[in-house]
Amino acid sequence: MESNKRGYLKSDFEMFHIKDQKSMEFDYHHHDFHKIVVFISGKVTYHIEGKAYKLEPWDILLIGNTEIHKPVIDASEVYERMVLWVYPDFLEKSSSKESDLLSCFSKASQEEYHLLRLNKEKILAVRGLLNNLELARKGKDFGHDILKNALFIQFIIMLNRLFLESKNSKEEKGIEYDKNISSIINYINANLAGDLSIEDISSKFFMSRYYLMHKFKQETGSSIYSYIIQKRLILAKALIRQGYPMTQVATNTGFGDYSSFVRAFKKNFSMSPREYYHNLQNTENGNIEDMDI
């Protein structure tokens, strides 16, 4: 697996409603923005950080901007979904002291559970609000832009309430993962600045080096080495966005030296860390056809 970043936003958030039936394959990737997937119909399994979610109608997925993921789509059925992209900074600016709009994404990441499965009553409430948001997004009459933003924030508030109040169960039907690999992924993400040699990880989790590499690949679709590099680079991008000096970014992400960091960054993102920083000031949308929307 090679995790690629896909897409930029010109606005604080975007919304797409897509219905198609075609063969599509995606590599594992991440975004610089958070993503919400509202699944309506089809036959799709979403892989997020070592877990596979077999989706049911009106399931909602919350995917943070540091989380590697990909959809696996069965083209034998029509695939309909709504996808919303939002920059974390926008949600942070729209939050208050009492209400952090990023809470649902934080909880999903901390609990390693990205699925919101609703009852019929709550599905109707979500559908109604999303329909109103979609109409406002397409509108041209007076105040449509203000209304669009207000409805989007209302949807995020609803999402937070539903997610924070839900009793998530990792034993939910249609979710598959290996508990040992999940623990290893947690360990890796908690120690990106440290020594993450395969030998040390295999010793810590009492398994042979060969079994660790084989099992990790089997469960995630990625080699463990590739996963570590990708997560370090995703963290590096987050630190760059926060304004950390480049040499400190290299140190805080576990690269042995600055030149190794630059080489890895260029190989994966086709630009240097400094070029990435400058591009943050002037980004454009990627090709929508290449997105996992």
Shape: globular
Biggest sheet architecture: 5 strands, antiparallel
- Which architecture of the largest domain would the CATH scheme give at its second level? Sandwich
Number of helices: 11
What is the count of structural domains?
Answer: 2
Order of helices and strands, N to C?
EEEEEEEEEHHEHHEHHHHHHH
Mean pLDDT: 89
How many E-type strands? 11
Percent of residues in helices? 40-55%
Weakly predicted, low-confidence segments: 284-290
Q: Could you name the CATH topology of the largest domain?
A: Jelly Rolls
Classify the secondary structure makeup into a structural class: alpha+beta
Rounded to the nearest angstrom, the distance between the terminal CA atoms is 20 Å
Strand order of the largest sheet: 2-9-4-7-10
Instruction: Tell me the radius of gyration.
Output: 20 Å
Strand content: 15-25%
CATH class of the largest domain: Mainly Beta
| The CATH superfamily title of the largest domain | Regulatory protein AraC
Tell me what the structure shows.
The structure is a single chain. The chain is an alpha+beta fold. The chain has two domains: 4-174, Regulatory protein AraC (Jelly Rolls); 198-279, Homeodomain-like (Arc Repressor Mutant, subunit A, Orthogonal Bundle). Helices cover 45% and strands 17% of the residues. The protein has helices at 88-94, 103-110, 120-138, 144-165, 179-190, 198-204, 209-220, 224-241, 246-252, 258-269, 273-279; strands at residues 4-5, 13-20, 29-30, 34-41, 44-48, 51-54, 60-63, 69-73, 79-86, 115-116, 175-176. It has a five-stranded antiparallel beta sheet. Strands 8-5-6-11 form a four-stranded antiparallel beta sheet, with no helix packed on it. Helix 2 (103-110) packs parallel to helix 4. The longest helix is centred in the middle third of the chain and has 22 residues, at 144-165. The chain starts with a strand and ends in a 14-residue tail after the last helix. One of its GO terms (molecular function) is DNA-binding transcription factor activity. This is Transcriptional regulator, AraC family. It holds the Pfam family HTH_18. It comes from Clostridium amylolyticum. Keywords: DNA-binding, Transcription, Transcription regulation.
